[in-house]
Amino acid sequence: MAQTETGIRKKLNAALQPEWLQIENESDRHSGPPGRESHFKITLVSEGFAGLLPVKRHQKIYALLADELAGPVHALALHLYTPQEWLARGEQRPDSPNCKGGGK
Amino acid sequence: MSNTLDTIKEQISSNPVLLYMKGTPQMPQCGFSAQAVQALMSCGQKFAFVNILEHPDIRAELPKFANWPTFPQLWLKGELVGGCDIILDLQQQGELQAMVQDAAGSQA
């Protein structure tokens, strides 16, 4: 159960020592059979993002999770902040949209 | 395959505001593409788009070229800006419009 999620958590913790890490499985909001691990929302707060443009932060995560993305994971919603930015946002991440059924 | 890569490079270099998406701006086929298109349209500039559902070769090749695995992807002046999350963040921070305007203006 939730094997992919556990693997993601392990890799992110090891590489980025996050101050805050939340992984939400949003797969049920997209088309496919139940119990999938295809869509995740990751909210991660780490000092390691300081001085990096958003695109670089995302690419860092994509590189770390390349195996998962080549396998069961279809999409990641990423919300990546430094501790300062996270505090300034009131420790809130935005919501994700629901799937419109395309792309399968 | 190199043909597809040439097509991508040509699209990116000749369209200063370019969105790779699932579906069309009128009929997005994915919630993330829909949000990205909405944010982009709110900038009031013309933009080009490629529906990757109709171009499986681009869908397969672009992620490797861009070091970005998913769609949508917004490209401004030949550079990847990011996907849906980044586009919406930029919009919220009030930076998106200026960036898109700047890119659109560079066309001439």
TrEMBL record, chain A:
Q: Which family does it belong to?
A: Belongs to the BolA/IbaG family.
Q: Which PANTHER family match?
A: BOLA TRANSCRIPTION REGULATOR, BOLA-LIKE PROTEIN 1
Looking up Pfam families in the UniProt record yields: BolA
InterPro entries membership: BolA (IPR002634), BolA-like_sf (IPR036065), BolA/IbaG_stress_morph_reg (IPR050961)
| Protein name (database record) | Transcriptional regulator, BolA protein family
Q: Which organism is it from?
A: Marinospirillum alkaliphilum DSM 21637
Automatic annotation (TrEMBL), chain B:
Q: Which residues are in the Glutaredoxin domain?
A: 17-81
**By its UniProt entry, which InterPro entries does this protein fall under?**
Glutaredoxin, GRX_PICOT-like, Monothiol_GRX, Monothiol_GRX-rel, Thioredoxin-like_sf
| Entry annotated with the keyword Metal-binding | yes
- Supply one GO CC term from the record: cytoplasm
- Per the record, the major location class is cytoplasm
Which residues are recorded as binding [2Fe-2S] cluster? Answer: 30
GO MF annotation: an example: 2 iron, 2 sulfur cluster binding
* Protein name (database record): Glutaredoxin
Compartments in which it is found: Cytoplasm
**SUPFAM superfamilies linked:** Thioredoxin-like
**Function summary:** Monothiol glutaredoxin involved in the biogenesis of iron-sulfur clusters.
A Pfam match is Glutaredoxin
The family line of this record is: Belongs to the glutaredoxin family. Monothiol subfamily.
Q: How does it assemble?
A: Homodimer.
Query: Gene3D superfamilies recorded for this chain?
Result: Glutaredoxin
Does the record's keyword annotation contain Disulfide bond?
no
Query: Which keywords has UniProt assigned to this entry?
Result: 2Fe-2S, Cytoplasm, Iron, Iron-sulfur, Metal-binding, Redox-active center
Which residues are listed for glutathione binding in this entry? 22, 59, 71, 84-85
Which CDD domains does this chain map to? GRX_PICOT_like (cd03028)
